[in-house]
């Protein structure tokens, strides 16, 4: 079945430094499913950070960017300069193109931004 | 905007007990979901409902029942709680295929 892999369980970055959180996906679909990044800030519920529905396109929100790369089946999350307020858990997710309703989530990456 | 409410916030039960978690949404969304999240892990789909009175099994449905009483509410029942079963159960809703999902705050379950 479909799957999403986030290799880092936790990433620590100093404030103002750049960030990459890795995400790769595997799908049996011949079409291109939607890709998502969700985020959970401390004390808050899980919420959408950004979404890309077209292969080759880039999504952006709150200074974060992610590009849908169908060749490498990747959807890495990047930010040029992180802030302490970015400390959160980030989840990469893949829409189920077959049925359309399910979403497969990665295991999450906890980002700690040190001052 | 809208909101998803989950009750209770914390649920403590005994082994073998039947336990029910409730979810309400006022987005007027057609589709609702129940996920289980174990500590440090991703979300796993238990049940989802495409519309009122519809139920679809997810990858983790064994040991659970669900009920979509009306469009705005979706309940999950743990049919026989297992000792040391600790997880957060998240309810979500969206407007349809591959749409953004909106999540509730979660119910934390502890079985003694």
Structure description:
The complex is a heterodimer of chains A (115) and B (112). Chain A has 115 residues and is mainly β. Chain A has strands spanning 3-5, 10-14, 19-21, 24-26, 35-40, 47-52, 58-61, 64-67, 77-79, 88-95, 103-105, 109-114. Chain A is globular, with a radius of gyration of 14 Å. With 112 residues, chain B is mainly beta. The A-B interface holds A 4, 9, 33-34, 36, 45-48, 51, 53, 91, 95-97, 100-103, 105-108 and B 4, 31, 35, 40-45, 48, 50, 56, 58, 90, 92, 96-98, 100-106.
Please write the string of helix (H) and strand (E) elements of chain B.
EEEEEEEEEEE
Per the principal axes of the C-alpha atoms, what is the gross shape of chain B?
A: globular
> From N to C, what is the helix and strand string of chain A?
EEEEEEEEEEEE
DSSP strand count of chain B? 11
Distance between the termini of chain B: 38 Å
Shape descriptor of chain A: globular
Helical segment tally of chain B? 0
Averaged pLDDT of chain A:
93
Q: What's the overall average pLDDT of chain B, rounded? A: 93
Name the structural class of chain B.
mainly beta
The low-confidence runs of chain A, each spanning 5 or more residues with pLDDT under 50, are: none
- Give a quick account of the main beta sheet of chain A: strands, pairing sense, barrel closure: 6 strands, mixed
For the termini of chain A, the CA-CA separation is 41 Å
Given helix and strand content, the structural type of chain A is: mainly beta
Oligomer: heterodimer
Q: What helical percentage do the residues of chain B reach?
A: under 10%
What portion of residues of chain A belong to β-strands? over 45%
Largest sheet of chain B: 7 strands, mixed
């Amino acid at each position: 079945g479909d799957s999403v892999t986030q290799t880092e369980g936790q990433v620590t970055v100093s404030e103002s430094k750049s960030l990459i959180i890795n995400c790769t996906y595997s799908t049996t679909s011949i079409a291109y499913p939607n890709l998502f990044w969700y985020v959970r800030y401390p004390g808050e519920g899980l919420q959408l950070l950004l979404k890309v529905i077209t292969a080759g396109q880039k999504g952006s929100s709150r200074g974060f960017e992610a590009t849908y790369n169908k060749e490498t089946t990747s959807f890495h999350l990047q930010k040029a300069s992180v802030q302490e307020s970015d400390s959160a858990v980030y989840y990469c997710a893949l829409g189920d193109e077959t049925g359309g309703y399910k979403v497969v989530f990665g295991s999450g990456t906890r980002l700690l931004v040190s001052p | 905007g809208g909101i998803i409410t989950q009750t209770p916030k914390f649920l403590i039960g005994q082994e073998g007990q039947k336990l029910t978690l409730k979810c309400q949404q006022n987005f007027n969304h057609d589709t609702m979901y129940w996920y289980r999240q174990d500590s440090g892990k991703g979300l796993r789909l238990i049940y989802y409902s495409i519309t009122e009175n519809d139920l679809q099994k997810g990858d983790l449905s064994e040991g659970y029942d669900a009920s979509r009483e009306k469009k705005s509410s979706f309940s999950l029942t743990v049919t026989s709680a297992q000792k040391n079963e600790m997880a957060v159960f998240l309810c979500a809703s969206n407007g349809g295929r591959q749409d953004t999902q909106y999540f509730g705050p979660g119910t934390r379950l502890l079985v003694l």
